[in-house]
Every structure is written in structure tokens, then in C-alpha cells.
Amino acid sequence: MHDAVIVGGGPAGSAMAARLAAMGHDVLVLDRAHFPRRKPCGECVNPAGVDALRALGALDAVEAAGPARLDGWRIRQGAGGGFRGRFPGDVHGLGIARDVLDSILLDHARGRGAEVRTGVRVTGVLREGGRVVGVSAEGGEEIRARLVVGADGLRSVVVRRLELLRRPPRLRKVALTAHVAGVDAGRGWGELRAIGRGCVGIAEVDGGRFNVTVVVAGDEARDVAGDPAAFFDDALRRFGFADARRVDEVLASGPFDFPVRRAIVDGALLVGDAAGYYDPFTGQGIFRALRGAELAARTADAALRAGDLSAAALAPYERDRRRAFGPGERVQHLVEAFVSRPALLRLVSRRFSRRPALGDAIIRVTGDVRPVRSLLRPSLLLGLVR
Ligand SMILES: Cc1cc2nc3c(=O)[nH]c(=O)nc-3n(C[C@H](O)[C@H](O)[C@H](O)COP(=O)(O)OP(=O)(O)OC[C@H]3O[C@@H](n4cnc5c(N)ncnc54)[C@H](O)[C@@H]3O)c2cc1C
User: Does the beta carbon of 4 lie inside 6 Å of ligand 1?
Assistant: First the structure.
């Protein structure tokens, strides 16, 4: 019997495994994929995510892989409109391909003593007397553990088997992601271009290779479904990247709105996207996966040592999560509301372009380097209405 079985070896699962193993627990990670594997993502680690990698002890390995540096974001709307926001001082984010980042993090977990099995698809959750006691995998294998950690991302099987989904996901958006060369988006800056209700995010991930993620509203999804690659290539031209050349396959993803009822039950907890996800727009998912794992590992360590894995013993994690991510989630909803309404975005862009402090403030909040309450400074609020 393992102390913890972790379903999913993405950033949340790897970080959780590394932390619990380093604390002396017997940890097994199961992932259905073989690594390196691609993952639909804008591939930007925000500045707080960089700090979380440092706290995990994995930043040196990530930097050795040659990621791109991100000093801020430019938001463009139509021809010439828009604003930009810079991270403060020497604070920066990173652009790094997920096949590279996730392999480094999984190796880091192995290095800290976790056992990792890839190519194992978890299909069910084992329960005895109302509490979770392990998982079952394709082929019928049963794996028992004192704690089950659901770190299996959007559409988590752990969430579905535990019936923790608050409502069925809504198809509000579809995203198409690929790497391209020949983009002239400027080094050191991520860029978001909006046209109508769609937008495209561009960020360098390594020496001249850029991640391009095209997001379209759910009602356009049927245009995408026929031929995602053709839609993506056409979108590159529509969004102004005439010379861009796609260098790998297009990954499609959606829906993203994935609300869960709670992140703990007797014998199990959820981290990363499995614990709830809303929108890829503000690029905070990797940070939340890493920081959420840090919070979860603290509670799990205490519960394992006390021999009490009940929901009551795991409750401090739920409380810490809410405190850490609750305000940011409200900002995410607000930002999404602006970006999906072109007229509103035009208005905000005009105000922000006249007052650079406004752009810096919002980009710093979504980069998790400034608290949400920093947006309530009177000087900023005045700038919005004048
Ligand atoms: C289009 C898009 C763009 C995004 N852009 C950004 C961005 O720029 N910056 C950012 O910070 N975040 C971004 N995000 C969010 C970010 O990708 C996620 O928040 C992050 O990957 C969450 O990590 P995770 O470990 O929880 O899940 P994942 O990274 O999804 O990892 C889950 C793992 O579980 C495994 N798994 C799934 N099911 C099973 C199963 N049944 N059995 C075994 N293994 C299983 C999968 O193979 C996978 O390896 C974006 C998301 C999308 C969709």
C-alpha cells in the first residue's frame, strides 16, 4: 500500500509528488501518456509560476532548457489599438514548450524519490465504507493508497468518478494551439490580438519558435471541427501573421469551464485543473497547479503523519486554496468578460493606452505578482473614469 497515489503527471501531479516524496512518503504517480508529450497550452509561466518553480527546486533545470523570457504582455485590438503592461523591475515570466517543462518536472519528482509509471490510464476510484482507498487502471489493475490525489487535469476521471462536477462543462470556447516559426511579434513580450469575439495569443517558447493559441467562441466551434489545421492556418493570416509557418500538428481543446463542488473527500484530494478551471485567457494555470500542489502537500503531509485522511483532516487545504485563488478567479471572470465584448475592450484599450499604469496594474495582477486589491488604488480607479 502506497502513502499516496497521484493520478496525472502534469505540473500539479509532479509538484505534489516531488514534495510528498521529499517529505519521506511513499508516492506513486500514474500518467496515461508517455513523456515527453504535448499539451494544449499557451506555454507561458507567469512570474509567480517562476517563483513556484524556484520554491520547488526545479527552476535551475527549467532555465537550463533555454526558455524564452517574458517581461510583460501587449494587448492589441484591430489596427493599432491596444495597450501593454510590464512586470515590475526584474520580475519576469517564461515561455517554455510543455513537452519540455512537464518532462523536467516529472524527472524532478523521480529525483526526489517518487515512483512514476507512464502509459497507465486510470479508469476508476476504489471505495470502501464511503472513503476512497485507491484507483483502478485500464486492464483491471487495482492500486491501493492511503491518499488518492486527482491531478488529471480538465475532464479528470477522478472528479467524474467521485461525482464532484458541479454541472456539465459549457462549450464557451475552443482553442487551437501549435508552434510556428517566422512570427514577428517581438522578443520578450507575450502578445494577445483580438478580432471580433476571437483572439490569438503569441509567445516565444525557445530560440525563434513561438506558441500560437487561437481562441474562438463556442458557436464558431463547428467551423473548427471540420479541419482544425486549415482553420488555424487561416486564422494566422486573419490575425496578421502573413509569414508565419506552422512547424507541428494543431492541438484542439475545449470546453474549459470545469467547476467542481469541492477539492477534498474522505481519502482523496484534487490539485491543478482537476480542482476546477475556468478560462485559459489569463495564463495562470501552471502557477495554480504548482502553488496548489504546495498547499495540498502541506495538508497531506500532516494528515498522513497523523494517520487521519478524512475530509475533516484535509479541510485546511480547501481553505488555503480558496484564500489563495478566490480573488484571482473573480478577476479572471472580469478580464474574460472584457475580452469577449469587443466594444468594451475598445473602450478599456483607449483608457489603458493613455494611462500605462493601468495596463501595468492588470498585467501584474494576472501575473500573480500583485494582489487583486492593488487594482482598487484610488489613483487607478480615477484613471479608469477620467
Ligand atoms: C488552450 C490553453 C491555453 C493555456 N495557456 C496557459 C498559459 O499560457 N499559461 C498557464 O499557466 N496556463 C495555461 N493554461 C492552463 C494550463 O495548461 C493548466 O492549468 C495546467 O496544465 C494544469 O496542470 P495540471 O497538472 O493540473 O493538468 P495537466 O497539465 O492537464 O496534466 C494532467 C495529466 O494527467 C494525465 N491524465 C489525464 N487523465 C488521466 C487518466 N485517466 N489516467 C492517467 N493519467 C491521466 C494527462 O496525461 C496529463 O499528463 C492553458 C490551458 C489551455 C487549455
Answer: no
Q: Degrees (nearest 5) of the Cα angle 283, 284, 287?
A: 135
Per-residue cell: 287: 502557477
Residue 40, ligand 1, Cβ within 6 A: yes
Instruction: Using CB atoms within 10 Å of the CB of residue 111, give its burial: 0 to 12 exposed, 13 to 18 middle, 19+ buried.
Output: middle
Contact 144, 126 (CB under 8 A): yes
Q: How many angstroms separate the alpha carbon of residue 355 from the centre of ligand 1? A: 35
CB-based contacts of 271: which residues, under 8 Å, 6+ apart?
A: 12, 13, 16, 149, 150, 151, 263, 289, 292, 293, 296
Probe target for ligand 1 pocket from 28, 41, 120, 258, with the most ligand atoms within 8 Å of CB: 41
According to the 3-state scheme, what is the secondary structure of 5-16? EEECCCHHHHHH
Q: What predicted TM-score, i.e. pTM, was given to this entire model?
A: 0.93
Please report, as a single letter, which amino acid is at residue 242: A
Q: In order along the chain (386 residues), what is the average pLDDT of each group of 10 residues?
A: 97 98 98 97 95 98 96 80 86 96 98 98 96 97 98 96 88 89 83 83 92 86 82 88 91 87 97 85 87 98 98 97 82 71 74 78 80 73 62
Alpha helix positions (H), the chain: 11-22, 47-56, 59-64, 98-111, 157-161, 221-226, 228-238, 285-306, 311-339, 342-354, 356-366, 378-385
